[in-house]
Specification:
α8 (174-183) links the parallel β7 and β8 (187-191). α3 packs parallel to α6 and α5 (94-106) runs parallel beside α13 (312-329). The protein has two domains: 4-78 and 125-254, Aldolase class I (TIM Barrel, Alpha-Beta Barrel), CATH 3.20.20; 83-122 and 262-338, no CATH class. The chain contains 14 helices and 13 strands. It has helices at residues 4-9, 22-31, 46-59, 85-89, 94-106, 126-137, 154-163, 174-183, 204-218, 233-241, 263-271, 294-299, 312-329, 356-376; strands at residues 15-19, 34-38, 65-69, 83-84, 122-123, 142-147, 167-171, 187-191, 197-198, 224-227, 246-249, 277-280, 288-291. It is of the alpha/beta class. It is 42% helix and 14% strand.
């Protein structure tokens, strides 16, 4: 395709694939899509980011890719003392800690098994770390730099523009779009409620044309990527007929052969229906779409003490899921019910594990078939 977005990113097919797995990112870009590495997990540091990006550089065969980090828009930029995960965990109320342990025990999961989350890690001042992450990212051939949580910090916009790298941001309303454009963002990702993890309440089918119309009224040519529940080429074609410049996808890559999700989680995802996801605060403390499980069911119940705010609920969830995965590995089938993952409603259309290259190819073929169907409706 010859579009402004394709020229901006150096690609021919505007299929953007967000993944925390570097193998998926490299495979998608090599196959003709555009992989975006999600450096948003709590253990990612500038040093670890360098390792991940060096690996992608060595395995992407010179094809373009992007980087996504998460800097909350309302993050305080004042100096703060260094804290550790143990210091945060010490602030978790005993009622919540006991609720989580009782739930694990109910599913036969031992709570005294050592897991990675038990390590006491220092957490640097967030904005200081984020700026170092931006600096590290720009030392690599990044073609798109995205902030996942609200308006990108000014230093991110300034540094990316100086380096000639477009800046993207996720939005959930036309009001968000205006604010991002005023900030100087180059690409908007309009994420509907069908999407995985943190999402709003407006459906993709409504949000995309609403944002596109708002941009047209403003006279803006900033490209819009449609996101939320998109797992096929025909959905991509539909989004682009509504004015999107391409699509931003995530859930479809979780079940690929390159994905590093736990095998038992992959099995649950492949068996899931579209209605087997739920928007809940049980995973992170903020409303996020996730696979239904015994974990989020319990936190939504009347007996629950109620999910904690971020980052405390996330600490509880991370430990519980690691313990449950280890228990499954040890042969405890009951622990499978505890497993969850941030995933969108489109997961119901995925039933087999494929290579990332095969998924990209399927998108291309499905997209072409959808265009052919549309063209057949037009009288010649």
């Amino acid at each position: 395709m010859k579009t402004r977005l394709c020229s901006m990113l150096g690609i021919d097919f505007p299929l953007v694939a967000f993944s925390h797995c570097r193998d998926v990112v490299a495979a998608v870009s090599k196959a003709g899509g555009f992989g975006v590495f999600g450096a948003t997990n709590g253990k990612m540091t500038p040093d670890q980011l360098k390792i991940e990006l060096d690996w992608i550089d060595a395995h992407v065969d010179g094809m373009p890719y992007g980087l996504d980090i998460a800097v909350p828009e309302n993050m305080d930029d004042r100096d703060a003392e260094h804290i550790t995960t143990k210091m945060l965990e010490a602030q978790i109320p005993e009622t919540h800690r006991q609720f989580a342990d009782d739930l694990l025990a109910k599913h036969g999961v031992a709570t005294d098994t050592p897991v990675d989350s038990d390590e006491d890690r220092e957490i640097s001042h967030f904005l200081d770390t984020a700026e170092k992450m931006v600096d590290e990212g720009l030392r690599h051939p990044i073609k798109l730099f995205v902030n996942a949580l609200g308006k990108p910090p000014q230093f991110m916009i300034d540094k990316c523009k100086a380096a000639g790298v477009p800046v993207g941001a996720l939005i959930g309303s036309k009001d968000h779009a205006r604010r991002q454009l005023d900030a100087g963002v180059d690409v908007l990702v309009a994420q509907g409620t069908e999407a995985a993890a943190h999402c709003g309440e407006v459906s993709t089918m409504v949000l995309v044309p609403e944002v596109v119309r708002e941009l047209e009224a403003m006279g803006s040519e900033v490209p819009v990527l449609a996101a939320g529940g998109i797992v096929t080429g025909r959905q991509m074609a539909a989004a682009m007929t509504m004015g999107a410049a391409g699509v931003w996808t995530g859930s479809v890559w979780l079940t690929t052969r390159e994905s590093d999700v736990h095998p038992a989680v992959r099995e649950r995802l492949l068996a899931a229906r579209s209605r087997d996801t739920i928007r809940s605060r049980a995973m992170t403390g903020k409303t996020a779409r996730q696979l239904k499980s015994a974990w989020n069911e319990a936190w939504e119940s009347a007996e629950s003490p109620g999910p904690l705010p971020m980052p405390f609920q996330h600490l509880l969830t991370n430990r519980a899921l690691l313990l449950s995965e280890k228990s499954v590995d040890g042969g405890n089938e009951a622990a499978r019910a505890m497993l969850t993952e941030g995933v969108g409603q489109g997961i119901g259309m995925i039933s087999t594990a494929q290579s990332s290259r095969s998924v990209v190819q399927a998108f291309m073929e499905d997209f072409a078939a959808a265009l052919e169907r549309m063209n057949s409706l037009v009288d010649e």
